Amino acid sequence: MLRAFNIIIIIIAAVTLLACGSMGKQAGSDSNSEPILIKKLSDITQAEYNAYKKYVKNSEAYVIVHPYYTLFSKPSKKLRRKLRKQPEVREFVDRQVKIENEFIESSVKEGSLVILVLPGDRYSNRYKAHLNNITQGARSVIYMHTKRKESGNIDDDQLDTLGKFMDAIGVRSVIVGGGYIGRCQEMAYKDLSTIFGDENIAISPEISSFSPSDITAATVKMFMQPDNQMNFKVISSYIKTMDNVSADKPANIRNLNLRNN
Question: What is the CATH number of the domain that holds 21?
Answer without folding.
Answer: 3.40.50
